[in-house]
Write a structure and sequence with these properties.
Layout: H1 15-31, H2 38-41, H3 43-47, H4 59-86, H5 91-126, H6 133-173, H7 179-199, H8 208-230, H9 235-240
Length: about 250
């Protein structure tokens, strides 16, 4: 007697469902760029060592902190939304992308907490006359240093892994023009080298070299957001996605 073994398959996603997925992912990617103004909004706390003593306005710091919280949540959203698509090409890369996004978001929130702590101490100082100014300035600079390190590890290092994981998926699947993920795959090692240079004190994270090294990955993420929002995934590539998980493609390497 011949026994037929049934292997359940995952249904292919409907085209309209995939378009919604790409649209949401694209919008979330674009939202992750709302924190760009923090480069200027944080100037009061960065340029004034006595900010914690009451020098300058804290409105910009609060707005910048809120925008970074939005970025952290939007970043996780991009990974969650794209996971069901990415895992059809490589489950390992898809999980890596989710993990990197979650770590990035966590470090962003650590940095935001550090700056908000400065604002809180600042407000407490305003109502107290017994605080030691020198000690408070030291505390403020310590919190600022925590933000800088959290930024390096979160918003600079984690995008390296984001670009490698999602870039691999998008390049292999052809869901978007391959020139887009290629920018991310080329930019990832450049950004990693720059992060290592900053980590070991070769130059500062706000140096021109660091800014240039970040450009390819930033362009990759921005162009991906624009493309997914405006056009969505390529229909032919969507149709070619495997209907089931393939063990041979569980590794992005």
């Amino acid at each position: 007697m011949i026994t037929t073994v049934y292997h359940p398959q995952e249904a292919r996603p409907a085209p309209d469902s995939m378009r919604r997925t790409s649209l949401v992912a694209g919008i979330l990617y674009l939202i992750t760029f709302v924190s760009i103004p923090t480069l200027f909004l944080y100037n009061p706390v960065r340029e004034n060592a006595d900010f914690i003593l009451g020098a300058g306005s804290d409105t910009g710091v609060l707005v910048g902190a809120f925008s970074e919280v939005v970025v952290a949540l939007a970043g996780i959203g991009t990974a969650v939304v794209l996971f069901r698509v990415a895992r059809r090409q490589s489950e390992t890369a898809a999980l890596g992308f989710v993990a990197a996004r979650v770590v990035e978001a966590g470090l962003i929130l650590v940095g935001v907490t550090s700056l908000l702590s400065v604002v809180t101490l600042r407000n407490d100082v305003a109502g107290s006359s017994g605080a030691d100014p020198a000690s408070l300035v030291t505390i403020g600079q310590t919190h600022l240093a925590t933000y800088d390190w959290a930024f390096l590890l979160g918003q600079s290092l984690m995008p390296v892994f984001n670009a490698m994981c999602l870039g691999y998926v998008m390049y292999r699947s052809g869901l978007v023009p391959r020139i887009l993920p290629l920018m991310g795959l080329i930019g990832a090692p450049l950004l990693l080298a720059s992060d290592l240079a900053i980590f070991f004190g070769v130059y500062d994270r706000v140096s021109p070299v660091a800014a240039v090294a970040f450009i390819p990955v930033a362009v990759w993420e921005l162009s991906l957001g624009v493309y997914l929002t405006a056009k969505g995934f390529k229909p032919a590539a969507v149709a070619a996605l495997p209907a089931t998980r393939r063990d041979s493609e569980l590794s992005p390497a």
